[in-house]
Amino acid sequence: MGVERTLLMIKPDGVRRGLVGEIISRFERKGLRIRALKMFRFTRSMAEEFYSMHRDKPFFESLINFITSGPVVAMVLEGDSAVCVVRNMIGPTDGREAPPGTIRGDYALSKSENVVHASDSVENAEREIGIVFSENEIF
């Protein structure tokens, strides 16, 4: 596949629980490079843009309320097949189905409080990175 960039975000539950360092270190140990990193709080409009593909789903409002409930830590990770590598490392959305050793398998408390978000394709990574980071924030 080649070198790719992807977005990984530690959600408010992961930040509240003090998992930021542990999660970042897993990706660094894997050999992925951090090209951008910041802590911020989603505004409602930014969250609605970020999760626009879920706008017509019944869980949209609770998703927006959750992601805006506290700070997140977002990063751009770069490496060979980064999208696939990161998705494999975080595990399935529902932490109850995620195998031990994945981030969600080890730390997720529920399907909604699942600690992290990661882009699911190169195209979505570009879109999500563009929402969260400006060009001059990526190295």
Describe the structure.
The chain is α+β, with helices and mostly antiparallel strands and 139 residues long. It has one domain: Alpha-Beta Plaits (2-Layer Sandwich), CATH 3.30.70. It contains 7 helices and 4 strands; from the N terminus they run E-H-H-E-H-H-E-H-H-E-H. Strands 2-3-1-4 form a 4-stranded antiparallel β-sheet, with helices on both faces. The longest helix has 11 residues, at 20-30. The chain starts with a strand and ends in a 7-residue tail after the last helix. The mean pLDDT is 97.
Topology:
Blueprint: E1 3-10, H1 12-16, H2 20-30, E2 33-40, H3 44-50, H4 60-67, E3 72-80, H5 82-90, H6 103-107, E4 116-118, H7 122-132
Antiparallel strand pairs: 1-3, 1-4, 2-3
What is the terminal separation in angstroms?
A: 21 Å
> How would you sum up the major sheet?
4 strands, antiparallel
- Kindly provide the radius of gyration, computed on alpha-carbon positions and rounded to a whole number of angstroms: 14 Å
Count of the separate structural domains: 1
Architecture (CATH level 2) name:
2-Layer Sandwich
- What is the CATH topology assignment? Alpha-Beta Plaits
Helix content: 40-55%
- Name of the top-level CATH class: Alpha Beta
Number of β-strand runs: 4
The helix-strand sequence is EHHEHHEHHEH
Q: Give the rounded overall mean pLDDT.
A: 97
Roughly what fraction of the amino acids lie in strands? Answer: 15-25%
Output the CATH homologous superfamily: Nucleoside diphosphate kinase-like domain
Order of the strands making up the biggest sheet: 2-3-1-4
Residue stretches low in confidence (pLDDT < 50, at least 5 long) are none
